[in-house]
Structures are given as structure tokens and as C-alpha cells.
Design a protein that fits this description.
With about 475 residues, the chain is of the alpha+beta class. It contains 16 helices and 17 strands. It folds into 2 domains: about 1-200, Creatinase/prolidase N-terminal domain (Creatine Amidinohydrolase, Chain A, domain 1), CATH 3.40.350.10; about 210-480, Creatine Amidinohydrolase, CATH 3.90.230. The protein is about 40% helix and about 15% strand. A hairpin with a 2-residue loop joins β2 and β3.
């Protein structure tokens, strides 16, 4: 201990500048403060999760915590943000975290989860306070703060972020209001659910900083797609070519940002008809279409979500191009509907109208079923045999962002300037589907772009990537010649 603890250069105590995100995070917290006046709000970062035996998954803070603090990447496991109500109104933002251990402590060199020898230097309380513009305190003070003046000061917690912090809040509630046992538990669960839902809805409209993050994520994703296209010839030569594609995208994502925002789908041939194909173990033949659904996540945890379907050999077959053009037409209709005044579900309605009409024209709907019949939500939906998923979802810190929002806030809500969403219709004809012509079997196509709603329509953040069949063919051929 004595030998390990001495002989080190002084630790830097210089304070970082205020982070660019700090003012935006403060504005988000101000909105939350106004919605929960005089209540104590606890938003944990979450803790490390075991992957296997003594190894952990890379830490990712809870999305609500990242949104309200501005901390991303793998910052500050086991921390907790508390919005503490002030006597004169509003809240003080207090970030509780574990400061680095002194170099004369055993933790410094022997704790594989927190020790500097194992995970590197961590910032001090003062440095985090300077970076984020919040009050910081030692995590050991969290218990006393959470239990202060309860039940006079109601407490809410984001329950799914950290089981230990949730248990602490529940214990405080039980101890202070034991005479109402049973009633308190249900009431508090509902209060916590309301907080989580509010924090999810808060992310529906992105501020300028978030839109800049989304733009960066998409730009990095475009670079990664270029890298993949250049490697398609190599993927066709190697065993498990889908893995080669996945690895190529992952390398670019890890270099440009935090990594991939979700498990990449790299599906060749028949595998492209499986919506969530993430095994990526298949071969890639020059005659295959390759469906790649992938996105780069920035260090601030904002992710792109883009899909391109590419002819591995550089040329669509007649049948492949027929399906591709139908999906592109559906996407164009969806993009046109992504504008203020329309509802979120209008985007799907516009795209699926084209899909249903195409399937009807191709004679794939049951006899006597019209386009209007299949679009009936109660008695129809025959087209879903070949496109079962929705056309859009909100996008941001989570790839399917704002997932706790109620239908009225999400599906039925009007689109507003600053919302970021995907537009991603598809058609999927499985090899064993005897209801489709043989030349269409085994073809899966999806085209997905990320758009931000503007004052008079939408801006396609991923428009730099080719979309038409002719442009995609030129893209693949040009990259193949470079390779």
C-alpha cells in the first residue's frame, strides 16, 4: 500500500470550460421543473451490468439522465441527478457521483470497476460542476437528500434506471408513510410512471444542439455506408460476408463516434426478408440484394438510423428493381407527408397507401379485396403480410426515441418543427411464400432516411446517400472499381 500510494505526479485540478450542451440541458431541466413544482425528482444514471462473469458491458447512462445532464458516452455510472425544489420556486440541479479515490487508497489500484489503474482517471466533483454548470455532491450524500422532509416533499424517481436508487426511494416512502401502506405504493408507482412519460415526451421536439448532434450522426453514417459499399466485392469473396459488412460499418462507427446506435442489420438475399436480422452470418452473392440498416451514435448518444438496399454486384435484376422502385415510391409519399400540421401517423398512411396499391396492381391481395378494403384497420390489413412494420418512429438518444409517450402524444400528435423521425417503408417476399410470383421470392427491400421537421416540410438529413435505383447502381459500381 505504501509503495503503490506514493511517487505520483500531482493530479491536475484545472477546471474544464462549460460544455456547449450545458445551457441546453439547463433549459430542459427548467421545463421539467415547471411541470413538477415543489417535488423532488430523482433521475439515476444507472450502474454497470455484468456481461459475463467478471466483465461488464460498456456503460451507457439512462437516456433521461443523459438528456437532462448532457453526459454521454460511458460517463459516470452509479451517479444520480436530483432536482431539489427551492423554497421560492424552481429546482436546484444536484448531481451526486462518486469522486476519484485518492492515490493512497486501495481502491486506486485494486478496484477493477472504479480504480484509476483499471479504468483511468475520473473527474473530480469540482471539474464536473464546472463542465455542466450544476451543483455536485458525493454519492454518499444521496440517501439523506432523498429522504429529507418526506412526505412533506413528494419524491418521484425514474424507476427503471437503477434498482438500488429506486429501492432507496421506495424505502423512504414506506418509512415515512407506513400508515398508508398499500395506497402509497400504487400512488407512487403512478407518480413515477408520469415522470418517466413526461421525460420521454420532452424529447419529441429537439433543440438546436440536438439537431446538430443528429446531423453529425447521419453524416458519420453516410461515411460508414461509403466504406461498406467499397467493401462489397470483398464481402462476396469471403465466408460470412454479412459479418464483413457489419465489421466494416462498426469500425467506421467506432472511429467517428461512440459506436453503432443499435445492432446493425446486414442481410443478404433471403435474410433481408427477416425484419430484425442481426445474426449477420450469411454469405453474400453477387446476385443478392443486401439490406443494411445501421446508424452511427455520437459520443453524446444521439443515433442515426438509415437503411439502404444494395445490389451486391452493382446491378438490380428486373424483379429486384421492380420491388425497389415500389418501395421508393412509397417512401417518397411518406416524405411528402412529413410536415407540420400532419399527424405522425399520416406519414405511415401515405406510404402504406402506395404499398397497398402496388400489391393490388400486382394481384397479390386476396380476390375481391380492394385497396380501400385492405387499408381498413379492423377488417383489412392483408398488405401487412409483406410489410408488417410501421413506416416511422421518432429518433434521438434512443433509436426508437420517446417510447413511453402515450398514443395522443405520439401517433395521434401533430408533427412540429424540430421533431426528428425516420421514413422507412419496405416490401419483404420470403422464399417460401407461395402467394407471390416465383421471381419475387427471396427479395427484401427497405429504404430508410432520417428527417427533421421544418417550418414548411422536412429536411432529409441523409439525402447525401443515393436512393434511386440508378443512383444506387452507380454508387456500388464506382465503389467497386475503387476497391
Amino acid at each position: 500500500m505504501d509503495f503503490m500510494g506514493h511517487g505520483w505526479a500531482p493530479v491536475s485540478e484545472s477546471l474544464p470550460p462549460l460544455a456547449e450542451v450545458a445551457s441546453y440541458a439547463a433549459a430542459r431541466r427548467q421545463e421539467v421543473s415547471g411541470a413538477f413544482e415543489s417535488e423532488r425528482l430523482v433521475v439515476p444514471a444507472g450502474g454497470l451490468k455484468v456481461r459475463s462473469n467478471d466483465t461488464d458491458y460498456v456503460f451507457r447512462p439512462h437516456s433521461a439522465f443523459a438528456h437532462l445532464t448532457g453526459l454521454g458516452a460511458d460517463r459516470e455510472p452509479d451517479a444520480a441527478l436530483v432536482l431539489e425544489p427551492l423554497p421560492d420556486g424552481g429546482h436546484e440541479a444536484i448531481l451526486f457521483l462518486d469522486p476519484p479515490a485518492g492515490r493512497d487508497s486501495q481502491e486506486f489500484f485494486s478496484d477493477s470497476r472504479t480504480g484509476e489503474f483499471w479504468i483511468g482517471a475520473r473527474p473530480s466533483l469540482e471539474q464536473v460542476a464546472a463542465e455542466l454548470g450544476v451543483t455536485t455532491r458525493h454519492i454518499e450524500e444521496l440517501d439523506d437528500t432523498v429522504g429529507k422532509n418526506v412526505p412533506q416533499t413528494p419524491v418521484r424517481v425514474v424507476r427503471d434506471a437503477d434498482p438500488q436508487v429506486t429501492a432507496l426511494v421506495d424505502r423512504v416512502r414506506t418509512e415515512e408513510a407506513a400508515e398508508r401502506a398499500g395506497q402509497v405504493e400504487q400512488r407512487d408507482l403512478e407518480a413515477d410512471e408520469a415522470l418517466a412519460r413526461y421525460l420521454s415526451v420532452l424529447r419529441l421536439v429537439k433543440d438546436d444542439w440536438e439537431i446538430a448532434q443528429m446531423t453529425s450522426a447521419v453524416e458519420a453514417t453516410a461515411v460508414a455506408f461509403d466504406a461498406v459499399v467499397a467493401e462489397l466485392p470483398e464481402a462476396t469473396r469471403r465466408d460470412r460476408g454479412e459479418r464483413w459488412i457489419e465489421g466494416t460499418f462498426g469500425r467506421a462507427a467506432r472511429h467517428a463516434g461512440n459506436g453503432v446506435g443499435y445492432d446493425s442489420i446486414c442481410a443478404a438475399g433471403e435474410n433481408a426478408t427477416t425484419l430484425h436480422w442481426i445474426r449477420n452470418t450469411g454469405e453474400v452473392d453477387e446476385t443478392d440484394l443486401v439490406l443494411i440498416d445501421a446508424g452511427v451514435e455520437t459520443d453524446a448518444l444521439y443515433t442515426a438510423d438509415v437503411t439502404r438496399t444494395l445490389p451486391a454486384g452493382g446491378t438490380f435484376s428486373d424483379a429486384q428493381r421492380r420491388v425497389y422502385d415500389a418501395v421508393l415510391a412509397a417512401q417518397e409519399a411518406g416524405l411528402a407527408a412529413a410536415r407540420p400540421g400532419n399527424t405522425f401517423k399520416d406519414v405511415h398512411a401515405a406510404a402504406i397507401q402506395v404499398i397497398a396499391r402496388t400489391l393490388h396492381e400486382w394481384g397479390l391481395l386476396p380476390d375481391g379485396v380492394s385497396v380501400e378494403d385492405t387499408l381498413d384497420p379492423d377488417e383489412g390489413q392483408f398488405h401487412r403480410r409483406w410489410m408488417v412494420h410501421g413506416t416511422s418512429h421518432h429518433l434521438g438518444i434512443d433509436v426508437h426515441d420517446c417510447a413511453l409517450a402515450r398514443r395522443a402524444d405520439y401517433m395521434d400528435a401533430e408533427l412540429s418543427e424540430g421533431m426528428v423521425l425516420t421514413v422507412e417503408p419496405g416490401l419483404y417476399f420470403k422464399c417460401d411464400d407461395l402467394l407471390v410470383p416465383e421471381d419475387l421470392r427471396g427479395i427484401g427491400v427497405r429504404i430508410e432516411d432520417d428527417v427533421v421537421i421544418t417550418a414548411d416540410g422536412c429536411r432529409n438529413l441523409s439525402a447525401m446517400l443515393p436512393r434511386t435505383a440508378a443512383d444506387v447502381e452507380r454508387w456500388v459500381r464506382r465503389a467497386g472499381r475503387r476497391g
